[in-house]
Design brief:
With 492 residues, the protein is an alpha+beta fold. The chain contains twelve helices and 29 strands. The chain has three domains: 77 residues, SH3 Domains (SH3 type barrels, Roll); 310 residues, Metallo-beta-lactamase, Chain A (4-Layer Sandwich); 54 residues. Strands 16-13-12-11-10-9-26-27-28-29 form a ten-stranded mixed β-sheet. Strands 17-18-21-22-23-24-25 form a seven-stranded mixed β-sheet.
């Protein structure tokens, strides 16, 4: 009897063994001999090993709710960096899994889609206890379509939160919604947990117009009373402990903070204001650059025309424009026409992901933004992805969309019936119906618009679901590999 080599799997809790799908994707087959595949896994997908006995160079596994067989030559022991651009409708929402299995949420849109995605991803439907690891949250800025989805995540007692990073501008009611202003600069920055709790703990800051951001942050304390609130800026250089000395599997991993850019005003840390609340909030978005081995990925909130120019000029004057240059980027501001062209030129990404939704009066992504992203991208064929376009597949055909709306209507009715029902037997049946409806809705809302980025630091894929399953597989996969000659990731 041939056993799977220890070099190809990890030991988990109890007697479990697990491994990961190899580059760029692999198939699950019906049997050790079958040529018929029954599921299609992406580079880095988690695989549970049912048996380590090797038959016909295949092993029996379970992955993506499928039991079958995979080739031993197509699996790998090491975990990848995952960047999941979740389709949360209008807004931004990103789930990052580091190669050492740390989880970071960057923005969460406006609706409950991020919470539904997490329920689906971690199968939280029937779990009684919280997940055994915490999530770190980054709120790029206080626009509702970036932060309000966290209100649903914070209410979910299965999802522990250890830290909430933000840009230091805490929107609240009143004449100075972002804090004190001196000489054209906002000086009332909120830097630490004590200052944050003082502001969101004030009842008047959680009432009336402009109070929604404070209300959302205050919710985090219900299930996470020890959570830390930490402001980020270029002064920090790196986020948390992810600095230039952090290593994963002998590869450097870091999260660098490029913005907001702090200035000193009357001896106080401050941020420039152009006296426009919306533009100030957007312009001072947290901008992060994730670096793993050779790959660089930019996540940039809603930076607009004015502040794109300010940031580009700032790094240009320092002689550090290369700080903005990356291999993949999340487009700022959902593909809005409010962009600074030279800022996009400096980013020069080989692949850009636009996160946008259907029900918005902006026509995102805008034609000029798509054109500029392509023209400013790296290589002859820069890749432009859109969560909104990725959702346009058979699962979201007109009939299926009607079914989805019907499911949501049914779920609302179940909720009403549950509140009114007193018979224990009927309550159990209604809860079972609720669970089934939620699973179906979550599956629809979270899987089919997501753009998946996976990388081992030398190779990278970006993938989206085909509109209709092809003979070759379920995924439209684009491969990029690092070139020592050009020092860039090149499209294969």
């Amino acid at each position: 009897m041939t056993k799977l080599s220890n070099d190809l799997f990890n030991n988990g809790y109890g007697n479990t063994k697990y491994t990961f799908a190899g580059y760029p994707s692999i198939k699950i087959f019906e049997s050790p001999e079958s040529k018929k595949w029954i599921n299609h896994l992406l580079f880095g997908d988690y695989i549970e090993i049912i048996s380590d006995e090797v038959l016909n160079n295949r092993i029996n596994i379970k992955s993506r709710n499928t039991i079958g067989w995979v080739n031993t030559s197509e699996i790998q022991k090491s975990r990848l960096l995952e960047v999941n651009f979740v389709d949360i409708g209008q807004g931004d929402g990103c789930h990052i899994v580091t190669p050492d299995n740390k989880h970071i949420l960057i923005d969460a849109g406006e609706t409950d889609n991020m919470n539904r995605y997490l329920n689906w991803r971690f199968n939280l439907y029937t779990k009684k206890n919280p997940l055994p690891f915490p999530f770190t949250v980054v709120i790029s800025h206080s626009d509702k379509d970036h932060y309000y989805g966290f209100s649903y995540v914070f209410d979910n007692n299965k999802i522990p939160i250890d830290k909430i990073y933000h840009n230091g501008l805490v929107e609240r009611p009143g004449k100075l919604p972002l804090g004190d202003v001196e000489d054209g600069f906002i000086t009332g920055l909120v830097k630490n947990t004590k200052q944050m709790i003082e502001i969101i703990g004030m009842a008047e800051n959680r009432k009336g117009s402009g109070s929604m951001y404070c209300n959302t942050l205050y919710k985090a304390l219900n299930n996470n009373p020890e959570v830390e609130f930490i402001a980020l800026s270029n002064k920090d250089n790196y986020m948390n402990n992810f600095d230039s000395t952090y290593m994963i599997d002998n590869k450097p991993f870091a999260i660098k903070v490029l913005a907001p850019v702090i200035t000193k005003t009357n001896g106080k840390d401050s941020l420039k204001t152009i006296k426009n609340l919306g533009k100030d909030k957007n312009g001072h978005s947290v901008i992060l650059k994730i670096m793993f081995d050779k790959v660089k990925i930019l996540l940039g909130g809603d930076v607009n025309t004015e502040f794109g120019e300010i940031l580009n000029d700032y790094y240009k004057k320092l002689g550090q424009l290369d700080e903005l240059k990356v291999d993949a980027a999340k487009a700022c501001h959902h593909g809005s026409n409010h962009f600074h062209y030279e800022f996009l030129e400096s980013i020069n990404a080989a692949a850009t992901v636009i996160s946008s939704g259907d029900e918005e009066p902006y026509a995102h992504p805008r034609p000029d933004a798509i054109g500029a992203l392509g023209k400013c991208g790296y290589g002859k064929k820069p890749l432009i992805f859109s969560t909104e376009l990725a959702r346009s597949n058979k699962e979201f055909s007109r009939n299926n969309l009607k079914n989805l709306h019907k499911l949501m209507d049914d779920l609302n009715k179940i909720e009403i019936d549950l509140q009114a029902e007193t018979n224990e037997e009927k309550i159990i049946k209604l809860k079972a119906k609720k669970l089934k409806a939620n699973k179906l809705i979550n599956s629809h809302l979270t899987k089919y618009g997501m753009i998946n980025l996976r990388t081992d630091g030398q190779r990278m894929i970006l993938a989206q679901k085909y509109e209709v399953e092809a003979k070759s597989g379920k995924w439209d996969i684009h491969e990029l590999v690092y070139s020592e000659k050009t020092k860039r990731f090149e499209l294969q």
